[in-house]
Amino acid sequence: MNIREKLKDKSRIVIKIGSSSLTHKDTGRLDLIKLEILVREISDLRNQGKEVVLVSSGAVMVGRNTLGLKERPENLTVKQACASVGQAKLMMIYQKLFSEYNQICSQVLMTKNTMLDNLNRINAKNTFLELLSLGVIPIVNENDTIATYEIDYLSVFGDNDTLSAVVASLIGADLLILLSDIDGLYTDDPHQNPDARFIEVVEHLDDHLMAMGKGSTGSNVGTGGMATKLSAAQVATSSGVDMVIANGDDFHVIHKIMQGKPYGTLFLEDKKDEFYVLNYLEHMV
After folding, report:
1. Which of the residues 62, 98, 132, 135 could staple to 86 if both were Cys, CB 3.0 to 4.6 A apart?
2. SS3 213
3. C-beta of residue 242 within 8 angstroms of C-beta of residue 268
4. 160 assigned binding-site residue
5. Residue span of the signal peptide, if any (predicted)?
6. Domains identified in the chain and CATH numbers
7. What is the DSSP string of 239-259?
């Protein structure tokens, strides 16, 4: 069986959407057509009997637009206020769209302490598993109103990339799909080097591959670049979770990935010690 073909059998999936994949490039406002497609794709996975967790960025961006702020705020308290307003509005939109497909979604906000505190971690895991058993689609974000890391560009969870990997590890997911504004992993920055080659499958993340992401940056909407995605791959694969980095320009790519078609870069699971993720988080800035 082709390596990609095995993705058809994945039953517990975490999907991460970056802010840049949710917005119109010219205005920075929500692309409601794309959002509707995203919700339909996830609802169809649920109809196939698969469990899905959505890790969605976008709270600060939505809050900024709701409050009429033209530029991304620099002041930390303004960012937190935007996150508070935007998270509520974003969830309202998700609730409305998912209800049209007879799906129930819920909100889960996490911080680094959610994972590092033993009781919090156990409670979070139990809550996720109960929600999934009830057929609910948990929608996850970092709690930006109290956690300053991500919105201050010193992210513990890195534009939700690492957060999605941590969630995948926590709930024992089969697959993590990271959708952003990049096609996957290249041997070099394809915008700078026309000879950069696309990497379809990564069997083992070594130091050379990790170094590829060091110089990359994210879009002006999100905060993460390739470095955070490779960190996410390190967490996910070390936890026994396969991961795909693909372009979120068209959310129909979700069912194409699940059908085993060659979209994005596939990182194969490479399970390590069960305490690897906790040790990783403890040593993050």
Report:
1. 62
2. coil
3. yes
4. yes
5. none
6. 4-282 (3.40.1160.10)
7. TT-EEEEEETTSTTHHHHHHT
